[in-house]
Amino acid sequence: MGFNMKKRVRIILVIIVIFVMITTNVYAYDYPTYDVTLNSGDVVKAYQYSEERFNGEYDPEFKCVKTVTINALGEEPIVIKESAFSGSVTRQVESLIINGTGKIILSSFAFSYTGITDIDIPSNVVFESGAECVFEASFLRRATIRSDLCPAMFQECYSLNYVNFLNPNIKKIPANCFDTCGLLSITIPSSVTEIEDGAFYSTFYLERVNLNEGLESIGNRSFENSNSIKELKFPSTLKSIGEKSFYETSSLVKLELNDGLETIGENAFLGCRSLKSVTIPASVTSIGEKAFGYYTTEKNEYKKYDGFTIYGYRGTAAETYATENGFTFIPLDSVSSVMGVTYTPSWSSVNDYSFSVDGRPLKLQVIEATGATRTFSRHASNVVIKAYDEQGNEVHDTSADLAYEVWTVKTRLTPNSSLKIHAKYDNVWEDQTYDFSISTLYSDTTLKSAELAETSGKQSAVDCKIVTGSGVNKVRIEYEDGMTTTVNSSMAVLDETNMTYTYNLSVKTRHIGENSFKVYIKTPTDGWKYATTLTYTVE
Questions:
Q1: Of 132, 198, 205, 243, most Cβ neighbours within 10 A?
Q2: What are 380-420's pLDDT values in tens digits?
Q3: What DSSP line would sit under 132-151, residue for residue?
């Protein structure tokens, strides 16, 4: 055997020996596992669980705690210090059970890098001053939160796709709290006033974000790289949007900024390539550099999106931003007046009113003769708005062809009242008012007509059409045997031109030969009154 061959054999043998040694060391060690129970007054530090409590002499690098049970039943708090159950120390904790209402104090990284998949954090859990990353990089899939939050609490919990907030007093979502989590949707509680910096940074799979009324500020980079979000609607309470807050939210196609918003930070919506336009309220006084309409190249150069359009009000930050950056600006305050009103009485607690208004006002206001005032905002729950061009064709609410809008509101107004209606444009209430009287619509309480369809051969029923004035809210059929059928005006067809109701009824036949029935009508002021009698013959 030659020298080179012997050398190769020796090398192979050495490799085999090393491999056997490594595998023996790895697989021959029997990792000990155990459960841990904590009671009131316990203070837990990393590396504590060896011979002190469990009479084992285990290498702390190989300890495996599987279940942690916390019995917070006494007055003394249970304190879990920094990294006490971190996976880097104790390997994978798979289950955390919390009993009792005594105080539990958690420090930074207390349960980070663990295998816990489902957790319900009770209200008696609090965090040590400066605590962060308590559950960082754990395998959580679901979290129910009854406590407060701490910074980076669930950072890098890639599998966490469901969070339920059950703390009615939570005030903020701390910095980086859900940074790089696997959330699919999130509803911010109405008690939250602030979303801090980076709170939802790089939540790549997040599609639905529900921001409730009460939220006032969204911090820097809070939703950066959350590129699955398609729609955003901000609550009326929001005042500020931070820098890069929605940077590279590339799937965003619909954005509704709220009236009342004041500041939009630098690069706030940079890289939102699916967003073709934005409507900026007159309340916005500050827009940071490249907040809208820009993206960055691979060489980190800023470029503008072609055709990006800004809708806003003259003399506001919206027009300034559009002008300074060379974007198309379409004013929303070109015309200012209320054009007309239609009214659909429902005789219930509320009625439908449709107001035709020039342009795109911010608000409408209705003032009754008594002085009672009702104000309607664009995004209120009881307001539906449709936009039209000069020809009466429906268009998008930010279309350049928008000529007027029709606001349909549900509200309770006093019968027989005179109304003054005016609109708010560019944060200013117009002096022009539109006078409108409900009394004229209530005044017609008559039966207009009552007709029967062809009755020959009808053995079971006959069709009947009854037309009344708009002041009638119910119609009743009374048969010869005393049985009745009553129909509300909500079931009738309203002719808005003539302001009449048409009731199309099926009247049951009582017998062969001549049949008759009485028609009664009802008004809110006069009650029921007899109107007419109809007869027909069934052969």
A1: 198
A2: 888 989 888 877 788 887 777 788 888 888 887 766 567 78
A3: --TTTT---SEEEE-S---T
